[in-house]
Write a sequence for this structure.
């Protein structure tokens, strides 16, 4: 089921959510790139590699690696070396990351209900 929003409502929703997240001072000051990568990893049933994320988002592997470094420091993702190809690294979910995104989803729902 889709929700029809006009431009002003969409921007207001985005603004309200980001303002709320900043004001909560969770310690996770995630960039848009980090959030996009985090959501991509968590909404997929298959593990992604740095190479695959780089290709999907059309950004360099070093840019993906920097984002993953930050996410990993926060405990939101974990890296695992592919046993079949030691050069390849899988990005794995963590409990902390699952809780963070679940809470984020609740925030989005709460603000969307106000529209």
């Amino acid at each position: 089921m889709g929700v029809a929003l006009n431009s002003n409502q969409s921007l207001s929703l985005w603004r309200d959510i980001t303002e709320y997240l900043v004001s909560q001072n969770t310690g996770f000051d995630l960039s848009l790139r980090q959030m996009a990568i985090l959501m991509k990893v968590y909404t997929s049933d298959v593990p992604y590699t740095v190479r695959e994320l780089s290709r999907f988002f059309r950004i360099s592997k070093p840019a993906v690696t920097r984002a993953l470094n930050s996410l990993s420091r926060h405990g939101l993702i974990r890296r695992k070396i592919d046993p079949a190809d030691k050069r390849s690294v899988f990005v794995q979910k963590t409990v902390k990351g699952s809780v963070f995104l679940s809470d984020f989803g609740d925030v989005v729902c709460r603000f969307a209900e106000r529209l």
Remarks:
- The chain has a mean pLDDT of 91.
- The chain has five helices and three strands.
- The helical segments are 7-24, 32-42, 50-57, 61-73, 95-113.
- The beta strands are 48-49, 77-81, 89-93.
